[in-house]
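Journal club side-thread
Mid-discussion, someone asked how the predicted structure for our own chain would compare to the paper's figures. Pasting it here so we can look after the session.
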Amino acid sequence: MKRLNCAIYTRKSSDEGLEKEFNSLDAQREACAAFILSQKHAGWAALPDLYDDGGLSGGTMDRPALQRLLGDIQAGKVQIVVVYKVDRLTRSLADFAKIVDVFDAHDASFVSVTQQFNTTTSMGRLTLNMLLSFAQFEREIAGERIRDKIAASKAKGMWMGGNVPLGYDVNDRKLIVNEVEAETVRMIF
């Protein structure tokens, strides 16, 4: 029986909680490893390499572990990529197309342990594209909410961060004059 080298790819958008002894990446990896073990009869074997991108957005391909994984696929070291959910791999349809091109060019495939679909059929590809469309939509909606919150806070005169200008302090997210520093500013200008 032919051995199929399986790479487990994990990702978490924020770095919140990554310092814990057992974090989200560990949970994803554990579920993927169990799935690979269930396919041992088919020749599946988990590679020892860790492909973990903690604190990195799925909306970009600029992730060290993802780039290393794609390089290992191109080098013929990986035949199957196992992810917990498809959106761990990417939340962008355009990026997903690029990733699939690499997979196809090197006879590699991928499996999501929590989402069942078969990408060898037209219905399976449609299902996958719908899932990715919703993942991309979710990412865009989150970005819009953040932009709206920042705009509303600015409209209320709230300080939105960054270096506090000389002559001011921040109190309750509002800039207030620091009289000692303000005197220096007045002398300069």
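Post-session note: The first helix runs from residue 24 to 38.
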